[in-house]
Every structure is written in structure tokens, then in C-alpha cells.
Design goal:
This protein has two domains: 170 residues, Rossmann fold, CATH 3.40.50.1950; 209 residues, 3-Layer(aba) Sandwich (Rossmann fold), CATH 3.40.50.10300. The protein contains 14 helices and 21 strands. The strands form six sheets. The chain has an eight-stranded mixed β-sheet with strand order 12-11-8-13-16-17-19-20, sandwiched between helices. The protein has a five-stranded parallel β-sheet with strand order 2-1-3-4-5, sandwiched between helices. The structure holds cytidine-5'-triphosphate. The site of cytidine-5'-triphosphate has 14 residues, from helix 12 and strand 16.
């Protein structure tokens, strides 16, 4: 994720400083060269030694130890993260006050910046703090959090620093190319569930992993993303407009509602093809034998295909075997631009695994095969192909 990236991690004086160790660890694990800069107050909460051990690099605390560290560190960094950022440091950044190494670096640095505030909710709602955060945001600084939750002082409120994983995700996003800016992408994911009675339902084994990965990658690359998802244990990606549904009919209603403003639709959901004709209102009693009458659900993608216009439509074809013929049939029937064929009979592809093996077929009959890859990498390939078509229409 961060191969060959130099990341500067600023740590200020907050109890949340312990989370920065995890941030540093995750950055290093993903290939970054991390250099940590601590304020004097940060060193009262946590020692530089722990960051040295985690990053394998010297930790910087003193403006006067090396006359040019504030310039050299700023010059070599590809990304600057400040986590936790106290109210004091945020206010200093906004006013351009440079009275320690970290605030000097802030002035000298010219690349992308991610800031994760941490403070008591009373401090966070203070107008002067709000104003400085607003000003910094306007100047291009990317803020992540704070969130509402229990605070170190024992109170509840908005001011808690986000967890390390969210800071790292914001870092990935800050370093990603923004080639999907201006695109509005509607994505579906997960299974749908069709009730038999208030207790039982028909569903399928889709985990939602592929669709969520596409949503995450699209947001990282600057798209406005709406994710309509059936039940899934996946965490909705930060920054994505998330709509939770259960039944295919609910998914259809949400997709149709958001279709107009979409520039592209990627239907990764495993929509149930059938639903019980008459879902029982009360729990059914068991009998020796029962039969279930099913009726067909609307084929959402086929309906979109009828009113496609200039939008790019991408479907998935889950097949038992690499059935290019069946996938091509679906592409034509549903009037799609691309179909992503995945062979669900493989152990490294399809439902509930973190990898996928795909074949992409376009509406000109071109077929591209890809090796086994992580779903987040597959997501970028699908988005690249979608963008190529979008640029031509
Ligand atoms: N799809 C849809 N609405 C449905 C069923 C499927 O929009 N009611 C979409 C899926 O999200 C997927 C594509 O159509 O992008 C193909 O789904 P798939 O289940 O593979 O194909 P089906 O057309 O349902 O055909 P079959 O189940 O017979 O393979």
C-alpha cells in the first residue's frame, strides 16, 4: 500500500497518543518509511523509544538538535499525518505559529496532510477550534474524526480520536490518484434476504466483500459513492453514502432512486432471483413436508439496461466454472458495458474470500483474464476499465 512512501507522523500531547503506535506499526507493515516527530507534551504521554522500535528510525523531538531537520524531513515526506492532534496544535497550525519542531515542519511541508483530532468535547465545540478546523479544511487539509464516544476524562462526547485503521485508510486515500473525481458511482453489494416467515428466509452466501472493496477503492480515487448493501458483516467504507437493505425489492427501489444522478452503476450484489410468493405473517409450524411457492424478483440490472443512456453499467456473473458464454449472454441480455465473470467453484475466488479471479468481458466481445488478486486490487482494475468506457461516452 505504501511502498516507497516516506510518511511523517506527528504526535502531540493527548492520551490518544497510544493509538499512534498502532498507526506507525500499520504504516510500516504496509511498506512505508515512517519518521515520527513528537511534541514535548507528547513525550509526557509516551516515550520516543517505542516509536524508534516500531519504525526502526530515529524519533525527532527537538527543533534545535539539527538546524535543518524541519526542512529536510518536510522535503522528503510524501505524506504528513498528525495523530493525535490536540486543540493547541490545530490552532497553532491554522495561525502559522512555529514554536516547536512539529509546527515548523507544518510550515515547511507542501504535500498532502491528514489530521486526526483528539480532545474533550467541550474543547472541540469551542468556536475558535471549530473555526481553525474549518480554515484548515478549506486549505486542503484532510481531517479524519473525531468521533463521539467515551473520553479519557470519563465523559461522553464528540472529541475521541478515530481508531488507527481509519487514520491509515485516510492516508491511503490522501495518497491515491484522484482520477474518479466528478464520477458518481452507484454500487450494490452483498446478498438479499427474502422472508419465508418472520423467522426464516432465503438468501445466498455472498459476503459483500467484493462490492465493499469496489466502494472503498472508488472513494479513495475521488468518486462520490453510494453503496446499497444487503446484510453483510463488512464495515461500510468511510466517506461512502451507505444504504442498508434486506430484500431484493428494497435494493431495486434504492437503486432506481439513485440511478439518475449516477454516472456508472456496478452491480456486485448477489440479488436473490426469487422470493416466496406469500411470506407468512406468523411463524410457520413444522410439518412432515412443505412446499414453497416462489415468484421471480425484478432483475434490477436488466431494468437499468433499458434506460442506460450514457451511463456505464457493470454487472457480475457468478458462474460454476469459467463460463464465458453464459457471462457474455448476460452482458448482452442486460445491455451492459462490462461483465465481471468469476468462477465460484474456485477456493481463491467468489464468496467470502479476500481474493478473486476474474475475467472481464466488454460489449465489443473483448475478453481479459486476470490472475488471482486481492479483492481491493480487483476493485481498482474494474474501476480502470469502467473509467476507460466512461471517458469515451
Ligand atoms: N442481478 C440483478 N437483479 C437480479 C438478479 C441479478 O440486478 N434480480 C444482477 C447481479 O447483481 C449481477 C448480474 O445481474 O450483476 C448477473 O447476476 P447472476 O445472478 O449471475 O445472473 P442472473 O441474471 O441472475 O442469472 P442466473 O442466476 O441464472 O445465473
Amino acid at each position: 500500500m505504501f511502498r516507497d512512501q516516506n510518511i511523517l507522523l506527528g504526535v502531540t500531547g493527548s492520551i490518544a497518543a497510544y493509538k499512534s503506535v498502532d498507526i506507525a506499526r500499520r504504516l510500516v507493515e504496509n511498506g512505508a518509511h515512517v519518521k515520527v516527530v513528537m511534541t514535548e507534551a507528547a513525550c509526557r504521554f509516551i516515550t520516543p523509544y517505542i516509536f524508534e522500535a516500531v519504525t526502526g528510525n530515529q524519533v525527532y523531538t527537538d527543533l534545535f538538535k539539527d538546524p535543518f531537520s524541519h526542512i529536510n524531513l518536510a522535503r522528503e515526506a510524501h505524506l504528513f499525518i498528525v495523530a493525535p492532534a490536540t486543540a493547541n496544535t490545530i490552532n497553532k497550525f491554522s495561525c502559522g505559529i512555529a514554536d516547536n519542531l512539529l509546527s515548523n515542519l507544518w510550515l515547511a511541508y507542501e504535500g498532502p496532510i491528514v489530521v486526526a483530532p483528539a480532545m474533550n468535547f467541550r474543547m472541540y465545540r469551542k468556536p475558535v477550534v471549530k473555526k481553525h478546523i474549518r480554515d484548515l479544511r478549506q486549505s486542503g487539509v484532510q481531517f479524519v474524526g473525531p468521533v463521539t464516544g467515551s473520553l479519557a476524562c470519563g465523559e461522553e462526547g464528540e472529541g475521541r480520536m478515530v481508531e488507527a485503521a481509519e487514520v491509515v485508510e485516510a492516508a491511503v486515500s490522501a495518497l491515491s490518484k484522484k482520477d474518479l473525481t466528478g464520477q458518481n458511482i452507484l454500487i450494490t453489494a452483498g446478498p438479499t434476504v427474502e422472508p419465508i416467515d418472520p423467522v426464516r428466509y432465503i438468501s445466498n452466501r455472498s459476503s459483500g466483500k467484493m462490492g465493499y472493496a469496489v466502494a472503498k477503492a472508488a472513494y479513495r480515487r475521488g468518486a462520490e459513492v453510494t453503496l446499497v448493501s444487503g446484510p453483510s458483516s463488512q464495515q461500510p467504507p468511510a466517506g461512502v453514502s451507505f444504504i442498508k437493505v434486506e430484500r431484493a425489492s428494497e435494493m431495486a427501489a434504492e437503486v432506481f432512486k439513485h440511478f439518475n444522478k449516477a454516472t456508472s452503476v456496478i452491480m456486485a450484489a448477489a440479488v436473490a432471483d426469487y422470493m416466496p410468493s406469500d411470506a407468512a405473517k406468523v411463524k410457520l409450524r413444522k410439518e412432515d413436508e412443505i412446499s414453497l411457492k416462489l415468484k421471480k424478483n425484478t432483475d434490477i440490472l436488466s431494468e437499468l439496461g433499458k434506460k442506460k443512456g450514457h451511463k456505464v453499467l457493470v454487472g457480475f456473473a457468478a458462474e460454476s466454472g469459467k463460463d464465458v458464454k453464459s457471462a457474455t449472454g448476460k452482458l448482452k441480455e442486460k445491455n451492459l458495458d462490462l461483465i465481471i465473470l468469476n468462477d465460484i467453484s474456485r477456493k481463491d475466488a467468489g464468496f467470502d474470500v479476500d481474493t478473486n479471479v476474474i475475467t472481464i468481458i466488454n460489449n465489443k466481445g473483448n475478453i481479459a483474464e486476470y490472475p488471482v488478486m486481492k479483492k481491493i486490487e480487483v476493485a481498482d482494475i474494474i474501476l480502470d476499465r469502467m473509467l476507460e468506457i466512461s471517458a469515451k461516452t
